Amino acid sequence: MAAHLAVVFDTGNGKYETKVFTYQPLGLQFRSQLPIIIKRIRAYSQAEELNVQLGWEVCSVGDKRLSGMTIEQASRVFQESVATLRKSIVVRSAPLDAISVKDLSSKLGWPGADVVPYLTQIGFKPKDPRAWEEAASPHLRLGMIDGHRKHSKGKHTWYVIVCKMFSSDASLTQHWQVERRLAHIRALVHDPVKHELGNAYDLYFTGAHFALRGGPAGTSARMGAWLTALSKAINVKALSPCLVASIMRFVEIPLPGHIAEQTLSGSKPVHDAVLNAKGMSQQEEAKEEEKAEEEEEEQSEQAEVAAPERKPVPWW
């Protein structure tokens, strides 16, 4: 029998509700203080599906009541209990061997003439590399986890993109996350999207502006809004199959039926679909982005030193 986790919530007015979770992550976030009150619920998460509400208080996790525990003890109970559930999300490791735009492009590869079969395999309905069939395609949702991190290997800043794709065919439903630098997202996604849409770009990205250079406060929220707008543009088929294939390779969508982490191979760089609005080549773009990103990260590091230390709030 598959593992499950019963969580009892105080919904207020002396009423209690029990929600049974069957996989991780749960999609809940709360502050590191008692009592444990739900502050955020991730969109399309299991918590949202179970109709958990903001402001509910966690009373017990599994067979353990949290009353009388310290926040450290309660957090440990959450961590150990959630660990027993199966994982429903593929977590990609940061490609630390592909720091530059050029290296990541080469590492991910490009379907080339195989755009149609590649997209068909992951559930899309392309007619050819430039046009879509009228049939319904999967619904894509892209977002970004608040905050960023730096790995011990190198000084570059990495952002976590959370991806979920829904389909009427359950076997094609996927949930995964990847880590990318802003330079990667700008050169390999933002610029080609803006180039292809041209004057129509503002129609799909009104109020959703790409991250500013220098990594100021609010970058993750800004990128989250931009990625949401990108998802909508893909869902209404505003982008060509050729470009969508490039974007899906960029976010490393797992192949259907695969839960274990996969490594997408490929040695050919992305060509037409990854030229920016200026029409620069990948090599030229990589050099400019590397220089700009170095300046951004130095400014970001200075801002971090000046800012007060804040304990991160994990998602469960």
Please, could you describe this protein's structure?
Strand 10 and strand 11 (131-132) form a beta hairpin. By secondary structure, the chain is α+β, with helices and mostly antiparallel strands. The protein is built from 9 helices and 15 strands.
Question: Which features would summarize this protein structure in a list?
Answer:
alpha+beta, 316 residues, 21% strand, five-stranded mixed β-sheet
Map the helices and strands.
Layout: E1 5-12, E2 15-21, E3 23-24, E4 28-30, E5 38-41, H1 46-49, E6 57-61, E7 64-65, H2 71-82, E8 86-87, E9 90-91, H3 101-108, H4 115-121, E10 126-128, E11 131-132, E12 139-144, E13 149-150, E14 157-166, E15 174-180, H5 182-197, H6 201-204, H7 219-235, H8 241-250, H9 282-306
Parallel strand pairs: 3-8, 9-15
Antiparallel strand pairs: 1-2, 1-6, 4-5, 6-7, 10-11, 12-14, 13-14, 14-15
